[in-house]
Design goal:
Elements: H1 6-19, H2 25-34, E1 38-40, E2 49-54, E3 60-65, E4 69-72, H3 75-81, E5 88-89, E6 94-97, H4 103-115, E7 130-134, E8 140-144, H5 151-154, H6 157-204, H7 215-234, H8 250-276, H9 295-303, H10 310-313, H11 347-355, E9 357-361, E10 370-376, E11 383-387, E12 396-400, H12 404-409, H13 417-425, E13 430-434, H14 435-441, H15 457-470, H16 477-488, H17 582-587, E14 593-594, E15 611-612
Antiparallel strand pairs: 1-2, 2-3, 3-4, 4-6, 5-6, 7-8, 9-10, 10-11, 12-13, 14-15
Helix pairs in contact: 6-7, 6-8, 7-8, 9-16
Length: 615
């Protein structure tokens, strides 16, 4: 395997093989080497390897491989891989999962598309040196090490060149700031540059050219840039030096504070994005501990529940032990707040727009970015005013009703990547709630955390049951008992979102009749006389039946009256009613529209509850 760091590649593949022995990543990397790809390990603890091909133009074309599939991230490679069988086209890249594609054929097709060469392995290139690399199948394969100045080294030069250019530009701006405003000016320029890089890395999941390998590190870099920017602003001189340079236009003077405020807000939201899905284990158990139903009582409550209720639907959720949390990360459920419905808004703003009232949107975002609104918090029962900003956005957070960590340990490990992404962004599993309570809940299930607002607990648990039914998840025995306990207090509570559970048929066996035993006769002693035989039954008397009387002739039936056929009535032409959006529905005075009524469509029902345009 050609690599600038063969030991790092070896370590990464061995770790993947230990975590997921069924993954074909080792064989995929072997095949890539045979086809002429150069395998590189990025800096840091990134969860991927780079498979690089030289193009006829002398530029490297890169695929990223991890334990679950291949990814094309650049514009040219996305265009090439988007049409391949099994490709999942996303907003920033194209994903080729192992469980939905043939990775060996994809590598060959990608190589032919990039180089224009024939199918199959390329000619063998003489090797200058070899390294031994143990694959997970215990086979030893020799991989060529690229010679000095070869293309494998050239493929790593591009990020370094980009980093050098940006660093030189930032250094020039810092020097200019120092000359113009001293230490405060230099710190302000440096802080703003670091803040922008950190925000971009946090939003995009990393910036490999800047050696930022994850969203968390990007958030930390953004926070450091914000601190530097504040220090620079605090140490600027009180009076600007008098110069002969013309003053900037008033619009620039107004835009600078606005830019700083927006950058600070973006940095805060990047940190919030990490905090919302951190999902730590809750510190305290639920207050149901003293009133919890036992195993038998919980099972009886579920089996005797009325059909179509959430309590009855609990019978469709298996009860198993909790699986280990090994391998869990937020990235297993796709990029945070992906625009899965492709409406141009991320999932967080979709949920804020659904759950807030009197909401206002940022101009120029097509009613996407929510800047303010009122939340009737279901968890606390309180009214919360939401204002988007550096210090205020965290007051309202988006909670996964079934926490992603809990889902991972109760069946989501077996789902494919697309299904897990759908679970993480499903409106059925998302609620806008009080931020501190969301942090308090962590990854708790119904046995360890329930909303303090007891009047909402039935709806909360019913929504958890609906999510588990929809995605084939299970519960632990403690979680099952806690759910049954809550739903027993509201036996008519339905499943939300139109979810229908496939409840097993109940069979009730009729009790077998109890036979009355016949007492056995007492034993006869020698002193007792033998019993007399029972007398024969008298013959039944013979009864002679009289001859039947003759049947009278039936009277003739009356003549039927003529039937007058009604005039056929032509059915009216069906009226087709459709609306492009909720604005048209409201203008027509038809809001809200219920499922089954003219004009209802799934695109108008954003929360999937069967009621469209309810606001």
């Amino acid at each position: 395997m050609s690599s600038a760091r063969p030991s790092a590649v070896e370590e990464r593949l061995a770790r993947w093989a230990q975590n997921n022995p069924a993954s074909p990543v080792g064989a995929v990397v072997d095949h890539a080497v045979q086809l002429g790809y150069v395998v590189l390990a990025p800096e840091g603890d990134a969860k991927y390897l780079r498979l690089v091909l030289d193009t006829p133009a002398g530029r490297g074309a890169t695929l990223y491989v991890d334990n679950f599939g291949l990814t094309a991230a650049s514009a040219s490679t996305r265009e090439l891989t988007a049409a391949m069988p099994g490709a999942v086209v996303r907003s920033r890249d194209v994903r080729l999962p192992f469980d939905a594609t043939d990775p060996m054929a994809l590598l060959d097709s990608f190589r032919r598309g990039v180089t224009g060469g024939p199918a199959g392995p390329p000619p063998v290139v003489p090797m200058q040196a070899t390294v031994q690399y143990p694959m997970p199948q215990q086979a030893t394969v020799q991989y060529p090490v690229p010679p000095a100045g070869a293309s494998a080294v050239g493929t790593t030069r591009r990020p370094s060149t980009r980093l050098a250019v940006i660093a030189a530009l930032v250094l020039a701006l810092v020097v200019f700031g120092a000359v113009d405003s001293g230490f405060g000016g230099a710190m302000s320029v440096l802080g703003l540059a670091v803040l922008v890089v950190g925000v971009l890395a946090a939003v995009r999941g990393g910036a490999h050219w800047a050696h930022i390998a994850s969203r968390r590190v990007g958030g930390i870099v953004a926070a450091a840039g914000l601190v530097a920017l504040m220090i620079g602003g605090a140490t600027l001189p009180a009076e600007a030096p008098v110069t002969t340079v013309a003053a900037p236009p008033p619009s620039a003077l107004v835009a600078a504070p606005a830019l700083d405020t927006e950058a600070a807000t973006m940095a805060a939201e990047a940190q919030l994005l990490v905090a919302e899905t951190e999902e730590a284990t809750p510190a305290a158990a639920s207050d149901l501990a003293t009133g919890l139903l036992g195993d038998t009582a919980a099972q009886t409550a579920v089996e005797t529940a009325q059909p179509t209720t959430a309590l009855a639907a609990l019978a469709a959720v298996p009860v198993k032990g909790r699986a280990p949390k090994t391998g869990y990360s937020r990235d297993q459920f796709g990029a945070a707040w992906t625009d899965v419905d492709r409406n141009g808004c991320d999932t967080r703003n979709d949920v804020l727009g659904r759950d807030l009232t009197a909401e206002a949107f940022k101009p120029g975002t097509h009613d996407c970015v929510v800047v303010s609104g009122q939340l009737a918090d279901p968890y606390s029962g309180k009214a919360i005013s939401f204002v988007r900003g550096q210090d205020t956005s965290a007051a309202v957070q988006i909670d996964h009703v079934v926490a992603l960590s809990n889902a991972w340990q109760t069946g989501a490990q077996a789902l494919d990547a697309a299904r897990r992404t759908a679970l993480a962004n499903d409106p059925l599993n998302l609620l806008a709630v009080d931020g501190p309570l969301n942090m308090q809940k962590g990854d708790g299930d119904a046995a360890t955390w329930l909303p303090p607002n007891k009047s909402y607990r039935c709806a909360y648990v019913a929504r958890q049951v609906a999510v588990k039914v929809s995605y084939g998840l299970w519960t632990t025995q403690a979680e099952h008992n806690a759910m049954a306990t809550v739903l027993s207090s509201c036996p008519a509570e339905p499943l939300p979102g139109g979810v229908v559970a496939n409840v097993p048929a109940r069979t009730t066996a009729a009790p077998a009749p109890v036979a009355t035993p016949t007492p056995a006769p007492a034993p006869r002693t020698s002193a007792q006389p033998a019993p007399k035989p029972a007398p024969a039954p008298a013959p039944a008397p013979v009864i002679v039946a009289p001859a039947p009387a003759p049947t009278p002739e039936p009277e003739p039936a009356p003549e039927p009256e003529p039937v007058v056929e009604p005039e056929p009535v032509e059915d009216p032409e069906p009226v087709s009613t459709s609306y492009a959006n909720c604005s048209e529905v409201k203008a027509a005075g038809a809001a809200p529209i219920y499922a089954g009524e003219p004009g209802y469509s799934r695109k108008l029902d954003r929360d999937g509850d069967g009621v469209a345009c309810e606001k």
